[in-house]
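REQUEST FORM: STRUCTURE PREDICTION
Request ID: SP-0412
Submitted by: Lab K.M.
Chain count: 1
Length (residues): 234
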Amino acid sequence: MVADALIYHPTVSHYLRFAATTLGRDKVLRTLQYFSRFLAWYLYRTNHPASQIAPFNAIKKQFSLSRKLLRVGKFVENLKAAATASDNKTLDPVIKLLTVGRNLGYAAYLSLDTIAYLDASGIRSTPLTKRAQKEAYKAWFTGLIFGTLTGIYQMYTIRQRSLKIDRKDGESVVESKKLERERAATSLQLVSDLCDLTIPSSALGYANLDDGIVGLAGTASSLIGARGVWKKTA
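STATUS: Completed
RESULT:
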């Protein structure tokens, strides 16, 4: 039967594994959140009535709040990653420094973001919320800068390793293909970090970006993240 073929299709099983992960659900919500941000901006700029814009503003607000809840406590993961990188004696010193910096930035961001969630959800209001949100954006920006520098440095080291390969040697051909895969993955992550940088940069006033650019950039980085989770749950 057609119904059985659909229900037991491998893609359906793959989707269930993807949706079962908190990160997978977060990426879906994030994609919808930032695309709604773009659509709200676009409809406003094209003089559509407020009644058509309101649903997308609501999606943007509610999905952002839902994602804040999903991130509560996640800072521990970043603190552990920073500690693990710091204790790794075989890790490239530059990569170690950048990895520790990135994860500490993210940990600070997620910790401060929890304060903003408590206020936005109405659980506990505090006069420190506005400042906490601003400091959270600064911490996220810092983490992303470290992430971007990591990507740039990794691209450099991959290029240096590639130049040393003898293309005529059989084993070197295998190594070359491995480097190509590393380059592709690093490039994709670098693009994602650069897209994400538009969000705190705009919020902090470091860059004059409208919601259209931020919305599209956030959508792009969300899709890249969702793709990564999808591949991991294959």
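NOTES: DSSP finds nine helices and no strands in the chain.
Reviewed by: T.R.
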